[in-house]
Task: inverse folding
């Protein structure tokens, strides 16, 4: 068998599916990402398991739905013992490492309960959801309990001194006289106060190249998660990217007055967020979108750097490259900002897999419209390294058959979840913590959203591709809602916690095994038992 | 505050709710258990979370539904890190120990993955689902991978030599000439080949008394799980209990030809089991029921021994005594043997809580018909020892308010589950492993059973208390089914894996906290930010 390819698993943060030229953006050219698509498969209907960083990522990193891994929101610790991609790749000899962001919080209470030292090798990896933290950097203002990222030290060595160099230099605008807070949307048109080469995206790209060079010397197969913080907030980018795009380059806003006329209470609560009100102003979009696009353009250029690096080393032919995002960004569409809900611009992500294996030649440069979920990547990686997917643990499906041009029977719907308990919407809606939950079922046409405590929402993307018209209360659509609710029930009853016992072992249970164990349940007398033993081939 | 009572948590195995005189059995007198009911509260509508030993017990021991703890069947390991009653009581200084059966299997793979030595103190307790194994004995023919129980050594010391003394002497009939296999129902009328005082029930009772005496000297509070294997199979009991009951003492069989006319496919598959066919024969019932009753009578006598022991030590006034069972036994009712399904004789259990505290005086000797679940005991124990129940972990509700005569708003339905994947029914029905699942919702009148892949079952216990008539396909009951299905969906969508983050902490999330963290999402400019900080009381 040919040596399996290494895997370079690139993730952006908050990158909409449609902000790439290969996905149709008319004015944002992303030739390097496009070239990945040209060399691989562009999965055009890929959905995340929760449209917010933390839980979405924990699903990517475990291959499990949010309700299975239980890390419902940013920095809700992933419980100790929850099986990760890294756990699955370790027995295959793969070095599974991280450069960049995971949004993971360690389950320190759980580790203490099980006597696991967080500073031991096992504790460190468990604290990083299965990744060896070659370079961990969530790219947000670090809280007091977290170690400062190495990027801060890097900036300091270059003379960019500050209590928080990440924020002060790399994510602020202005000059020595006036520091302009990069979190504030009004400053999105300013260049970041740092030369481009020292900003986060090129820095992380170099760190990825460091890892690849180092690991190649070891001769071990590797799976590197290169996880860019951008184009996530703060929306600020260094020159020259801050000035590349102007009013003529912006996609028109996708919104309709119908969406504000009598919205579902949950949608209304999110429309009432400050970020939604601000992004509903044209002035804000005009200020922010060019920065958002510039950040993407910078990433695309760095992907180019990385591809040239791999090519020069001859590793482009032995590396499977995956490009995706943890969720999208409303940017004012639907009178919303940020992510959180289930419109396409939020829950749908770019997903490109470029597999250089000959087996994938048949699909090279094609698009695939199968309904794909974020949880499909982890099992894909396990299979790509020659492992067997533990389907009682991972809930996604390997994409390898699709990459190889097979047409397997595929899932009929994708699922996504959102827990708004940590947000102001919970209080605004008067919901208990454990009832602040949303569930999306999307079958490729109908998008059904179950909202605990409220009527559902329903959109027909065939007749209403922009998702303007909520049919959740339309009597004419009762049958569709009932059908989607049944799909939700079947999904909700999934057997997702039976992780210690595989389907294969269960299928091995037999009458002969029971007879051998001596648990002789149900036999009347010796004759009946003897006959059963004979029938089971035991005598 | 008064010193909390110790807790003696007694469980029988396979004891039907109605085989106690305090629950109405006309010919089986259980005065010692009845006296517990007279001193406490008899919960007359208590239901287990799965009508089979292993998963039912894991729910008792974790306070979590089966689909939450994931140990779906006997000896499916409870995943490492799953929080147990013992974990919750440890910080309260309580010694939580086991004498008898748990049906636990250790998650050795998970422990290896987390570097936990199974022989360390932590590993041993995790392997026993949170209990210190003062005496572990599942009372079944030990498999090759398990250590022989101490009871075997006890028998050997008394001269009862055999490869498997438990089976050979304590659970067989016959004499030196002819050994009669106690697993075979035809031998249920024979006395076990052992003097009564050396049989399992008195032995385990003495071991419980050993523990209590020892722990009293330590001065630590304790929670002892005394877990009798009986009246579970093998149905064989030593003299004189083998001969106490005859044909005149038997409850009439509860079955109707309607149940066999056109049964639901799942019910039919269980009726086809060997054990069901045998128990459907009157001859079998006549042979087995007296032994079953004798085993219960022996337990009752041993409860008497235990109560006299506690009384003599002055500990009856400081010990809360709980008496229950892990599930019932069909014994031929509904043309079924064993347990597994959701008729009352299988899923409903006796549950008595005798709390000597003055606070419980108001309810002493009363019955309570609140819908109680097995998972309610663990939180009850936590509260009884002065702890606070972590409601993001434990899914049951403390019974203390009910014991104190309060009338809190209570749950409207109980839930139970069954996974028949390891059984012959799966193959007979052609179901995939992960679709061999049954779910019961019972609201006190309507019992709804969701069967993946089949129509539901529905019983109206008001008009049909014997559960003979399945209304699962009755067009007139579509509304009831829809209502119950909605209850199932709400339950299925429970947030049962978010165990690292409490509701209390989530309620503490605030705009001020976000402002303090520096994640300034959604602000346009300095003026807007300053106003928000002022409004949040930050300046």
Result:
């Amino acid at each position: 068998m040919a040596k399996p390819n290494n895997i370079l698993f690139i993730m952006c943060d908050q990158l909409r599916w449609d902000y790439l030229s290969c996905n149709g953006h008319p004015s944002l050219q992303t030739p390097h990402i496009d070239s990945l698509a040209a060399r691989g498969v562009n999965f055009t209907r890929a959905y995340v398991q929760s449209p917010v960083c933390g839980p979405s990522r924990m699903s990517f990193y475990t291959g499990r739905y949010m309700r299975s891994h239980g890390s419902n929101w940013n920095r809700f610790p992933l419980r100790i013992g929850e099986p990760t991609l890294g756990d699955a790749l370790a027995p295959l000899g793969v070095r599974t490492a991280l450069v960049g962001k995971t949004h993971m919080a360690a389950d320190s209470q759980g580790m203490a309960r099980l006597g696991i030292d967080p500073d031991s090798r096992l504790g460190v990896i468990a604290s990083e959801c299965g990744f060896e933290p070659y370079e961990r950097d969530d790219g947000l203002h670090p809280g007091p309990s977290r170690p400062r990222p190495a990027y801060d030290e890097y900036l300091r060595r270059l003379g960019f001194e500050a209590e928080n160099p990440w924020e002060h230099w790399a994510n602020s605008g202005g000059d020595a006289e006036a520091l302009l807070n990069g979190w504030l949307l009004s400053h999105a048109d300013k260049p970041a106060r740092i030369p481009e080469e020292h900003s986060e995206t090129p820095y992380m790209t170099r760190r990825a190249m460091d890892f690849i060079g180092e690991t190649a010397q070891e001769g071990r197969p590797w799976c590197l998660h290169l996880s860019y913080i951008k184009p996530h907030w703060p929306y600020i980018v260094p020159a020259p990217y801050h000035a590349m795009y102007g009013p003529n380059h912006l996609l028109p806003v996708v919104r309709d007055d119908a969406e504000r006329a009598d919205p579902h209470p949950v949608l209304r609560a999110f429309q009432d967020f400050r970020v939604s009100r601000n992004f509903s102003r044209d002035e804000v979009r005009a200020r922010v979108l060019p920065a958002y696009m510039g950040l993407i353009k910078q990433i695309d250029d760095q992907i180019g750097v990385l591809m040239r690096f791999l090519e020069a080393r001859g590793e482009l032919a032995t590396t499977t490259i995956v490009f995706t995002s943890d969720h999208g960004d409303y940017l004012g569409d639907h009178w919303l900002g940020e992510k959180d809900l289930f419109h396409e611009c939020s829950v749908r992500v770019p997903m490109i897999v470029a597999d250089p294996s000959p087996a994938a030649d048949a699909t090279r440069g094609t698009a695939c419209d199968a309904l794909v979920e974020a949880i499909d990547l982890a099992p894909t990686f396990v299979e790509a390294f020659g492992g067997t997917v533990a389907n009682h643990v991972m809930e996604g499906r390997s994409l390898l058959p699709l990459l190889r041009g097979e047409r397997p029977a595929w899932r009929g719907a994708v699922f996504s979840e959102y827990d708004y308990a940590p947000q102001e919407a919970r209080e605004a809606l008067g919901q208990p913590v454990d009832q602040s939950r949303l569930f999306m079922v999307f079958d490729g046409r109908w998008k059904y959203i179950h909202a605990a405590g409220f009527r559902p929402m329903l959109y027909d993307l065939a007749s209403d591709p922009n998702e303007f018209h909520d049919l959740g209360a339309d009597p004419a659509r009762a049958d569709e809602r009932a059908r989607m609710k049944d799909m939700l029930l079947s999904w909700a009853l999934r057997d997702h916690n039976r992780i210690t016992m595989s389907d294969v072992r269960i299928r091995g249970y037999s009458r002969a095994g029971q007879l051998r164990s001596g648990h002789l349940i149900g036999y009347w007398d010796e004759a009946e038992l003897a006959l059963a033993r004979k029938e089971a081939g035991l005598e």
Q: What stands out?
A: The mean pLDDT of chain A is 96. Chain A has 21 helices and 17 strands. Chain A touches chain B through 87 residues (CB under 8 Å). The two ends of chain A are 43 Å apart (CA to CA).
